């Protein structure tokens, strides 16, 4: 029905009139009124697909009744919001937000001493650009331990604990700029987090070669998933955009849209072909073990030269049509599939051929390509249903195309088969898509999300800045059916969805949790037992205030400091009741933090003005929550 011609010019602009017209004309046969409106070009909105979903009953299946639990956890990246958002799937109820690269007014993330230790030197940045969330693996299945995510804005990689849903580690990758594509080793377990640095910079970037782009390079980076230390880096030709890993733990592949090594937009479009860079993890490890590396500047991370000219045979560069974008491994473990972006094709690389490629048994790098189906305009990302079908977003066509992988291979071999199964309109212009469990060998082909960059007319207007629009599509049957629209705020790029039984959370904190272990150790140096003591300790102009909280009381209802003191307030929540979180907020001091059951949280600030300043609990905890407060008395200097 929507398998329309794709003869439009390559253009990245959104044509609202065109989409409305298409929506209208598609409905001509079914509803003459809507069809006439569409043809008259007056922009009447027709909702042909939701109507269809209701007609066959699918919409009813996504209603999760009040009090009932969802089937899946969905983890959405927050783009330039810097956070991670948790949705229940299929209800698309937003359950939680996890601050990662941003700061958080509610929890005190970025302000408390515990979270500042995690953020380290980058605690001074209030922004991030979080694109690619991925969940740790054992043997190709998600093990629900950790989620890892990149920060393109400040070149960081963060880890989120999925037992408490808190960010617990972060690293700024040295020698590079703008971590973009990020993926995890899938087997035998996630030992490495791999991270693409996108932008080319001089090496070392100390000001000497700023005017000589031929000296600019970027690197592929491996981070130890357990220690979150950068283990090694690989210099590459060109740049690195998106990436994925295989299901054996041996290979990874990244798209490069800038084989030209250009620093301007026209420059990056010059070559007819760019490439997919393939990395041999064991060959890189071997080069490091043999001392075949350099270090750069004041970083001591081993840097292996993976450029063609170095001849180390740790990388291979497979030519693909110009400026590719997404790269997604099929869940049967057979293919790396790179989306063409400026080409209407995707390129299928057979992973089983990569041993031969690295061993020099192939005459041409292109010999690993086993399919290059033409799908439509602007292919960006691909996901899978575990039944042999792939689903690729078409940014310019504003569609998701379902196609069959084995038929695409047969077509490449000259057989006359149609590999396209269906195209469905999405609203509007999708980036990533993601189907349930589709980054693991357990892909179950139930729901697919199209993460669309524009919502335009789908919601009540909210001024010039619009939300994005994430659409849920039923892929369990032969035909894709649009089920639901969800507005999202700037700008989830990507998502990962796993079954609810794959996550085991703690309901209250354990007192020996490493999240606040350094704070507990500091209290012990002061001779303080956090679970019992309510004391104020003066140490020069530093004052450490220790108190407990039990609803609806703070252990101290007042404490006295001197103007100019650096005050650290450490609070231990003795409540053991699930969901009984307290807060600590000091009026007119910009201080606020969360203290969940059995948690210890601390915050440091300067008492810069004399007078009385109230502090209060700002997480609703009790009928007498409003009364849970105290006074900070600041004596004049
Ligand atoms: S990138 Cu955003 S649409 Cu950063 Cu994964 Cu393709
Ligand atoms: Cu304690 Cu509100
Ligand atoms: Ca290019």
TrEMBL record:
- The residues forming the signal peptide are none
Q: How is the cofactor bound?
A: Binds 2 calcium ions per subunit. Binds 6 Cu cations per subunit. Each subunit contains 2 copper centers; Cu(A) (binuclear) and Cu(Z) (tetranuclear). Cu(Z) is thought to be the site of nitrous oxide reduction.
* Keywords, alphabetical: Calcium, Copper, Membrane, Metal-binding, Oxidoreductase, Periplasm, Signal, Transmembrane, Transmembrane helix
Q: Where in the cell is it found?
A: Periplasm
List ligand-binding residues for Cu cation Z2: 131, 180
- The residues the record assigns to binding Cu cation A1 are 582, 617, 621, 628
Reactions this protein catalyses: N2 + 2 Fe(III)-[cytochrome c] + H2O = nitrous oxide + 2 Fe(II)-[cytochrome c] + 2 H(+)
> What EC number(s) does its UniProt record assign?
1.7.2.4
Which pathway does the protein contribute to?
Nitrogen metabolism; nitrate reduction (denitrification); dinitrogen from nitrate: step 4/4
Q: Which GO terms describe its molecular function?
A: calcium ion binding; copper ion binding; cytochrome-c oxidase activity; nitrous-oxide reductase activity
Q: Where does Cu cation Z3 bind?
A: 132, 432
Similarity field: Belongs to the NosZ family.
Function text: Nitrous-oxide reductase is part of a bacterial respiratory system which is activated under anaerobic conditions in the presence of nitrate or nitrous oxide.
**What PANTHER family does this protein map onto?**
CYTOCHROME C OXIDASE SUBUNIT II, NITROUS-OXIDE REDUCTASE
What's the name of the protein? Nitrous-oxide reductase
């Amino acid at each position: 029905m929507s398998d329309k011609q794709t003869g439009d010019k390559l253009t990245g602009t959104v044509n609202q009139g065109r989409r409305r017209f298409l929506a209208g004309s598609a409905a001509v046969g079914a509803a003459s009124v809507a069809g006439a409106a569409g043809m008259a070009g007056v922009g009447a909105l027709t909702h042909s697909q939701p109507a269809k979903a209701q007609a066959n009953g699918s919409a009813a299946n996504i209603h999760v009744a009040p009090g009932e639990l969802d089937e899946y956890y969905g983890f959405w990246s927050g783009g330039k919001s810097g956070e991670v958002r948790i949705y229940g799937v299929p209800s698309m109820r937003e359950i939680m937000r996890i601050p990662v690269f941003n700061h958080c007014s509610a929890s005190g993330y970025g302000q408390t001493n515990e979270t500042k230790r995690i953020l380290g030197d980058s605690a001074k940045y209030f922004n991030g650009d979080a694109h690619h969330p991925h969940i740790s693996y054992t043997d190709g299945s998600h093990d629900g331990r950790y989620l890892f995510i990149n920060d393109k804005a400040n070149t960081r990689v963060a880890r989120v604990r999925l037992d408490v849903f808190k960010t617990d580690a972060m690293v700024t990758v040295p020698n590079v700029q703008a971590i973009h594509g990020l993926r995890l080793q899938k087997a035998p377990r996630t030992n490495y987090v791999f991270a693409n640095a996108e932008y080319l910079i001089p090496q070392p970037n100390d000001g000497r070669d700023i005017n000589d782009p031929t000296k600019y390079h970027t690197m592929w980076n491996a981070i130890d998933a357990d220690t979150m230390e950068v283990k090694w880096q690989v210099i590459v030709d060109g740049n690195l955009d998106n990436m994925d890993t295989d299901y054996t733990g041996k290979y990874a592949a990244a798209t490069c849209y800038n084989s030209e090594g250009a620093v301007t937009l026209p420059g990056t479009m010059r070559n007819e072909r760019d490439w997919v860079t393939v990395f041999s993890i064991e060959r890189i490890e071997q080069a490091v073990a043999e001392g075949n590396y350099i270090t750069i500047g004041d970083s001591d991370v081993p840097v292996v030269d993976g450029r063609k000219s170095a001849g180390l045979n740790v990388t291979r560069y497979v030519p693909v049509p110009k400026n590719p974008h997404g790269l997604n491994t099929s869940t049967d473990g057979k293919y790396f599939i790179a989306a063409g972006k400026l080409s209407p094709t995707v390129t299928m690389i057979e992973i089983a051929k990569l041993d031969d490629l690295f061993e020099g048994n192939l005459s041409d790098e292109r010999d690993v390509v086993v399919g290059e189906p033409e799908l439509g305009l602007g292919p960006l990302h691909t996901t899978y249903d575990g039944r042999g079908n792939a689903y690729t977003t078409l940014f310019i066509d504003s569609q998701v195309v379902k196609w069959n992988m084995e038929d695409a291979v047969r077509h490449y071999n000259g057989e006359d088969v149609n590999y396209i199964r269906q195209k469905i309109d999405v609203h509007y212009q999708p980036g990533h898509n993601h189907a349930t469990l589709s980054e693991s060998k357990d892909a179950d082909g139930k729901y697919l999300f199209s993460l669309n960059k524009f919502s335009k007319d789908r919601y009540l207007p909210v001024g010039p800045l619009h939300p994005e629009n994430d659409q849920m599509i039923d892929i369990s049957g032969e035909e894709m059916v649009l089920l639901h629209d969800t507005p999202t705020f700037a700008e989830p790029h990507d998502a990962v969805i796993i079954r609810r039984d794959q996550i085991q959370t703690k309901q209250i904190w354990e007192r020996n949790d490493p999240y606040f272990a350094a704070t507990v150790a500091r209290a012990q140096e002061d001779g303080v037992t956090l679970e019992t003591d309510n004391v104020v300790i003066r140490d020069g102009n530093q004052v450490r205030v220790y108190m407990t909280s039990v609803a609806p009381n703070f252990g101290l209802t007042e404490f006295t400091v001197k103007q100019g003191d650096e005050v650290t307030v450490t609070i231990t929540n003795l409540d053991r009741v699930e969901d009984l979180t307290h807060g600590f907020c000091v009026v007119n001091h910009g201080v606020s933090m969360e203290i969940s059951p059995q948690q210890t949280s601390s915050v440091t600030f300067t008492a810069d003005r004399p007078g009385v300043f109230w502090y209060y609990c700002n997480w609703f905890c009790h009928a007498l929550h409003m009364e849970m407060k105290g006074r900070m008395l600041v004596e004049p200097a």
